[in-house]
Every structure is written in C-alpha cells, then in structure tokens.
Specification:
heterodimer; A: 205 residues; alpha/beta; Dna Topoisomerase Vi A Subunit, Chain: A, domain 2; 2 domains; two-stranded antiparallel ribbon; 7 helices; 6 strands; B: alpha+beta; OB fold (Dihydrolipoamide Acetyltransferase, E2P); de novo design (two linked rop proteins); five-stranded mixed beta barrel; 38% helix; 22% strand
C-alpha cells in the first residue's frame, strides 16, 4: 500500500484507505487526506455518513439486479414502462448511461460482467440464468442486447441470443447499432466499426 | 531480447489479453514477432474519442507503436490489420479463437523473439475464420504450437523403452512426452492415455503437414476425440495447469453436439 509514511497513524490509515479506490495512487490519496484535514468536521461527517449509507441502504433489485434502495428498483416498479422489452447491460453504470438518453422506455437486466474465458468468467458467473427465468415467467417480446462492442461483449451477446432462441423463438432479439461516434475522424476509425457503419448506413432522403 | 536503447518501436501484434485499468485506460498483453509477449497500457483507450481504443480488442491483429518504460510499456498509434470479422456472431469460432490466443500467450516469453509462434497464431486465426472444420484446425494448431515451442510429442520412438514404435494401438504418456509401446512395461507416473493406431497416424500427419494438406483429410469423430484427449492432457501437463478458456470452449462444443 502506501509508500509515503507521515508517522501519524490516523493519516496513514486514511491514505491507505483511499488507495484502495480505483484510479487513486499514493499521491492522490495523500492529497485527498490532507484536503479532508482542512474540511469542517460536519463536512467530513457527511462524507463518512454518505459512504456508510451506500453500504447500509443499497441492495440489488430482485428483478433486474440494478442497484436499488428497495427490493424493486424505481425502473422495475414504474408501471408506465414497457415490461415486454428488456435491455441487457453489462454493469449498473450502463443503465445510467442508457437512461441519460431518455429514449428507452423498457426494463433492464444487469449481467454484472461479460463472458471472459481467459479470466475464467463463464455464463455461470453472470446473471444469465436469471434472465432465462425472466423470459420464462413473463411475456417478453424483445430482448435488446447492449453489451459493449468488444469480442467479449459479442461472445456474451451470441451466447444470450442462442439461449433465448432455444427458449422461445418468438422473442425478438436485437443488438445496439454500431457506427461512427459523434466528433470522430474517419481516418482513425478501425475497419470493424467502418464495416458496421457502412452496413447500417441510413438514407438522407 | 529487449533492447533498452530502442525506446520506441513499431511492430505488428496480436492482442491476447485485455483488461480495464483506472478510469479510461486498458491493460493489454500482445504477442509480437520480434519481442514475444509485450505487456503494456493503452492510455485513454476507453474514451469515445480515443484514436487507439477502436483498434484494441481481443484477437485483433494490429500494427502499433510501443514505448518501452522501466515498468509497463505504453501503446500508441494503432492501426487494425485484421479484426477477424468472421468470428463475430459465431460463438464456436470465437471460443476456439480465444483458446488459441490464451495458449499462445502461455507458451510465449516476455521480450523473447518468436516469429514462428506469432505467424502460426495469425495464420490459424485466419484459417479458423474461414473453415468449418473447427476441431481439426484446433488440433493442428495445438500440435504445431507444441512443435514450435520445443514440446513436440515423440510419436516414432517409445518414450519408455527407446525402441521404434510399430504400427498398432499404443499408449500416450504426458509426463514422458510421447507414445509408450503397449508391450513395454510403463514405469510409475501419470496415468497413460489410450492411443489407437488411427489417432497416432493423425497426430503424425497433423504434426508434419501444413493446413492445406491437413484440411483435405477426412477424420472420424472418435479419432478426433482421442486426439483431443491426448493433446489436451499433454498441454495441461506442459503448462502446469489447464488453460482457463478450455472450460468455456468445451461448454460451447457440448451445446453444438446437443443441437445436432
């Protein structure tokens, strides 16, 4: 852990705690710690209480496995949403990203990862069997697979596609479209993205 | 070996492992022809406007610039040479491709030149993309990889007695690294695997021939299964553990068989 020792145990303890967070190195941990020393006691208490709050109050939704404060998340318990369409995502953060678009009005299913054979992560380590149960127990018309456009994301999408087809051939399965991102430069775009962009081109008429 | 004076170099590479690092970086393992296994970081590769991110994915054949550092290298200016688009939407090909990449990584040495291994991997992935004979190409790749890495199984001389192997049904010993004549008394060691005459013939043929000859051969499923069992056990023994992707590949193969 910390290479920098202040000889004050309470400071070292917090520096070490910050270093456990992703993307925080020894220098950043030290900077955050010294910033906290300068903060008012109430602000520090608020930060500590917020950190504890997410551990005490949060759970996963029993339907979609998104992070929630109740047994069912606000999306799954919203009657206005289309419960016949499920968008399958890798992580809870992906739900936030799609919700930002304000265009999707169906429900979600969070897998908590993707199939990654080289890391020994197979379908059994993901929430895929739970998705099977949802399809069996509910009237689902469409599954939108929104895994990342990487080989592991494609492998996961193919696995889910095969599984859904074995289960119920009438369920529509779709994949998020792939193409050129806004503000990109064609010169630097990889051929795989260009192939998809050309195949999914749209008419300007 | 690594030349530290050469601070930046351009190379062709095949991505064999990828993981997220920090907010927007990716940790990548590459197999290169002149520098063997190279581990490094692609900074900002997860960002939408990254110029390198789109070119870096598992099993992509790329050309890129590598900057060597004391610890991790950094990768820049990538260009895709082949994304093996034939794997997309085909779980059978994808699972075998990932397995090929993983065992190539395990047989590679960091900064150790191995053009033959690199060429074999790129060639095998290209062939896998086009062929429908998934099992045979995987076996051919495995035995060629073992041969290139100096672990070719001994198929002509009994590894127990040292005598020439006569045509017939024999046994295979992974810890001795080859065929054991059925008439010789095997010493203590790991259990021996049955090696019927057709399996030995196939092992010899795929070991000594290029794919353009191997692909013409018609092999029955039993011989393919026996060959797989021998090579799987021998690779596991040579590496010291099973490749992690083997389990997923076998699950997909089982699903294929159930569908037929």
């Amino acid at each position: 852990m910390s290479q920098i020792n202040s000889s004050l145990p309470s400071i070292d303890r917090l520096v070490e705690a910050f270093q456990r967070l992703p993307g925080i190195g020894p220098k950043s941990a030290q900077r955050l710690t010294y910033h906290l020393i300068k903060m008012k006691r109430e602000e520090s208490a608020e930060l500590a209480s917020a950190a504890l709050g997410i551990k005490d109050n949060l759970t996963t939704c029993e339907i979609c496995f998104n992070i929630s404060e109740k047994s069912q998340c606000s999306i799954c318990s919203d009657n206005e949403r289309n419960s016949q369409i499920i968008c399958v995502v890798e992580e809870p953060l992906n739900v936030l990203a799609i919700e930002r678009s304000k265009i999707f009005k169906g429900l979600y299913h969070v897998l908590y990862g993707v199939i990654s054979p080289v890391d020994a992560i197979g379908p059994d380590n993901l929430k895929i069997s739970e998705l099977t149960q949802r399809i069996k127990n509910n009237e689902i018309k469409e599954i939108i697979i929104a895994t990342n456009p990487t080989l592991r994301g494609e492998a996961t999408a193919s696995y889910i596609r095969d599984m859904v087809l074995e289960l119920d051939k009438s369920v529509e399965i779709s994949r998020l479209a792939r193409g050129l991102p806004s503000g990109s430069d064609i010169e630097y775009v990889d051929d795989s993205t260009l192939v998809h962009a050309l195949n999914s081109r749209s008419s300007l008429k | 070996m690594k030349n530290f004076r050469q601070n930046i170099f351009n190379t062709e590479a095949l991505v064999v492992r990828i993981s997220n690092f920090g907010e927007s970086d990716r940790l990548i393992n590459l197999i290169t022809p002149k520098n063997g296994l190279v581990r490094g970081i692609a900074k900002g590769a997860k960002k939408q406007n990254s110029r390198i991110g789109g070119h870096i994915d598992l099993l992509k054949f790329i050309k890129l610039s590598v900057k060597t550092n004391k610890s991790l290298c950094t990768f820049n200016q990538a260009e895709t040479l082949n994304s093996f688009n034939g794997f997309k939407n085909n779980l059978s090909k994808m699972s075998r491709g990932i397995y090929m990449g993983e065992i190539a990584e395990k047989f590679s040495v960091e900064w150790g030149e191995n053009k033959n291994l690199f060429n074999l991997l790129v060639q095998s992935l290209s062939l896998l993309e086009k062929t429908t004979d998934y099992e045979l190409i995987t076996r051919w790749y495995e035995i060629q990889l073992l041969r290139i890495s100096g672990f070719a199984p001994e198929l002509n001389i009994c590894v127990e007695s040292g005598k020439k192997i006569d045509p017939g049904n024999h046994l295979f010993s992974s810890d001795k690294g080859g065929i054991v004549d059925i008439s010789s008394k095997p010493s203590d060691g790991n259990p021996l695997i049955p090696a019927p005459i057709n399996t030995i013939k196939l092992l010899k043929f795929i070991s000594n021939n290029q794919w353009n000859n191997v692909c013409k051969v018609k092999v029955d499923n039993k011989t393919l299964d026996n060959t797989k069992r021998i090579l799987k056990d021998y690779i596991r023994y040579t590496l010291g553990n099973s490749p992690k992707s083997e389990y997923f590949m076998d699950e997909i193969i089982q699903k294929e068989k159930n569908r037929l």
